[in-house]
Structure formats: structure tokens, C-alpha cells
């Protein structure tokens, strides 16, 4: 193909893609002649993968993260010059804005997402001897928040289709000791929020959402973090809303928020009883600073627009990758009306790529200019967890018999398999222009066409 034909072909493809997404958005089938597989013929047409000496599918770098402009600079300087560097006006403004954004009644900003989870566990009364149901496919902080209370994490297997906790398997894991559910909206995709709150209600147990990766994701138009007793958020550097480190908890109950405030403030509550240096509980300092809030207020001005771009690119990329044999993008449950795409996740099948292993596939993708990762390893079988649960404290609380039973039941075979198949793109890739999505598709098609050669390279 000469350059002019190629440009023309790319243009035609772009027009087709636009038409395709428009039709998909309207729930229409592709129009006749608008076959999805045209991407392969337009782009790949025998071109070699970069690893075998061909041209890179993506030459430009992907969007940098974080992004900021004069607004963050202005807010930060204001905080600096105010001379009030700890919790003050910026934090209060942020909490108000975040409550408005999520639709939560109350918000408490914290120093990070892990602390948000620990505070939620603490003020909701998760104690030693309690069991909390968790997914095995998440960032370790979810599990640590349970362990910090000397509570017992009980793992429920993943739904490989969606990468989320499999809600159909929750009830079988509930025992008289179950105190609550701690589902994670993983990758910004949303758990089954028809089923999960109903289970919590039926069994009269707590529901805390780990929404650390799912800022303004929605289930049937309602923002995540507002379905249960508390919603926990992280603003750590990689997250879709970022202040380097930072966190927040959403509540629908102002009493809970007050208790959380006291706990995160060394036990000093909001209501001044007149007596200074008196304390509500054994607690910690998990306060956020004015600087973090200043940055967050700036970042928040761009969040909705960035979320819209990620969603549009994520939806488009999933529709294109679904056409490639051996690539299965994470599905959304029907109720998910907004996926935050903190991660774009899919399953990779080497058999459809002439036996090319996942690691070889990732290497070939990297050579195309497309960074991707293998993602998590199973958490329910981590060595440190075995050691923790065999510790003096845990044995004293739960006894040999319960720990034995826990070990026997602690199997998540679907998740074990998922961890061997998963591939992730991080959220900043989803902030690219649309052609970047086509380049990702092109790269994967090239790799597939040359799977055998790459496997031997
Ligand atoms: C990032 C993250 C956390 C912890 O947040 P930090 O701010 O890093 O402490 C907890 N859970 C999940 C799912 C996360 O992705």
C-alpha cells in the first residue's frame, strides 16, 4: 500500500469506526458492509510485528499521567500562602465537592485509600473474630484493611467474564461470624450491585465498597460508593483522581461520618465537649493536608471529561478486540452504566496465537510501543497471608478448627486461571486519541498473524 492509499484507507476506517460506535451506542447492529474485521485488512496486511523488524504500531508516547495546569498551581500557592497547611478550608471545599459529585450524603477526606478502608472497618465495628468477605483479585490494601482488625478475610471466587467478585458465590461463604461484605469495583468496572446490596440486606451484614479504582463509575445511573454503609476511595498517584497520596470515605449517615472523623483525628471528635485532650476512642492520625485537597480540587475540574474519554475509548476498544479470536475484554454487567476504566482488562488465550505465551505477547506488544501488564497474582494464596493466619494472635482468636476449615475452603479456581490469562492497559492509555485504539488493535492483529514466528524468536 502506498502512503496515499494507506491514508485514504485509514480515513475510511476511521469513518467506519465512527459509524460503528454510533450504531453501537444506539444499540444497532453493524450496517451491511461495515464488517468489524475490516480493521485487520486495512492495517495489518502482512506487516511484520516490531519485534521481527516491522514498524511499530504506535510511535508516539501515550498520554502522561498526572496532568495539571495553572489551576493546580494557583490552588497550591493559595494553600501555601494561607499558612494553614493542615486540615482547613481546601479540605472542607473538597469534601463538599466530592459529596456533590458522588451523590453521597457525607464525605471524609483521608490521607490515603488504605486508611479509608481501615477507618471504615473500624467505625463499622469490624472486630477480631469477625469474618469479612473479599475478592481474591484486587490490590492488597483491601485484604490488609481486614487483617488490621484481626478479622478473617474470606475469599469468594472471581467472575472471569467481568474480573469482579462473583456475586453468585457470596451466600455460600456466609457464616454466623460474617460481619460484612467488602466488594471491589475492580479496574473501574462495577460489581453486580443489584445482587450484592440485596445479599447484605438479607443477611443483615455490612456493605463497604472498595471504590479505590472506580471514581464516578455508575450502576444504573447511581455512583459507586453510595450503595452500602461506606465507600472507600484512593487518590494515590496512579488513580483516575490523583493527589500523589490521598483518600476519601463516602457515608449516607452523619453519625458514622462523625465517628470516622474522630477516629482519623487521634480520637478528637467534631463536637467540642468543652474539655480539651479528651478522646472518643483508641485511634490514629490519618488526616489529609491542605496541599492534597488543593490539588484534588484542580484535578476534579477535569475528572468528568477524562472519564467520558476513557469510557468512549474503552467501549470502542472492547468492541474491536472482541472480534479477535483469543482476546476477551472484561464484560460489564448490564447495570453498569459507567465504567471508569482505571484499567482496560482482557483475557489472552495463547492457543489463538500459535502458542505465544502471555509473557511473549506482552514483550511483543511493548515492542509495538504499547505497554501492558500481567496484573495481579492470587491474593488468597499469598505466603504472607498463610503466615499471618497461622500467627499466635489469629490462632488464639479463631482456633485451630476454624483455621483448618478456612484453609480447606480457601479455593478460588476461576481466579487462579484468570490470573494466568489477564492483560491490563492502564488508564492513561484510555485518554489517548481514537487512533491509538486502532493502533492497539493493529498491534495485536500483527502479533496474532506472526504468532508462530514470535514464539520462536
Ligand atoms: C489503590 C487501592 C487501594 C489503596 O489505596 P492507597 O491510596 O494506595 O492506600 C485500595 N484498594 C484498591 C482496589 C486500590 O486500587
Summary of the model, kept short:
By secondary structure, the chain is of the alpha/beta class. It has helices at 3-25, 38-44, 70-82, 89-102, 113-123, 141-147, 195-202, 254-264, 290-321, 358-367, 383-389, 392-409, 413-421, 434-449, 451-456; strands at residues 106-110, 131-134, 152-155, 158-159, 164-165, 178-181, 206-210, 218-219, 222-223, 230-234, 247-251, 327-329, 336-338, 343-348, 422-426.
Task: Describe this structure as you would to a colleague.
By secondary structure, this protein is α/β, with parallel strands linked by helices. The protein has 2 domains: 15-65 and 303-375 and 419-456, Aspartate Aminotransferase, domain 1 (Alpha-Beta Complex), CATH 3.90.1150.10; 70-302, Aspartate Aminotransferase, domain 2 (3-Layer(aba) Sandwich). Helices cover 42% and strands 12% of the residues. The protein is built from 15 helices and 15 strands. The protein has helices at residues 3-25, 38-44, 70-82, 89-102, 113-123, 141-147, 195-202, 254-264, 290-321, 358-367, 383-389, 392-409, 413-421, 434-449, 451-456; strands at residues 106-110, 131-134, 152-155, 158-159, 164-165, 178-181, 206-210, 218-219, 222-223, 230-234, 247-251, 327-329, 336-338, 343-348, 422-426. A hairpin with a 2-residue loop joins strand 8 (218-219) and strand 9. The relative contact order is 0.16. Pyridoxal-5'-phosphate is lined by residues 112-114, 138-139, 141-142, 184, 210, 212-213, 234, 236, 247.
